[in-house]
Amino acid sequence: MLHRIDYDEKHVLEIWTKPGHIRAQTYADMDYRKEWYAGECYYEGNNYGDTSNFYMIGRIVYKK
Prior knowledge:
Layout: E1 2-6, E2 11-24, E3 34-37, E4 40-44, E5 52-62
Antiparallel strand pairs: 1-2, 2-5, 3-4
């Protein structure tokens, strides 16, 4: 089931009944640094970056 809402003169907002879900890396998740003092690593960030959850609840499309 799909709900359609007029967004503006040219676009329609389509709201999905079941949202989509992805996990993705953002700039805020990136922390690749390592901090050293006197030859020892005292801080080690995440080497691969963490991911955040994103939910897609619809889309904006051109009116037909």
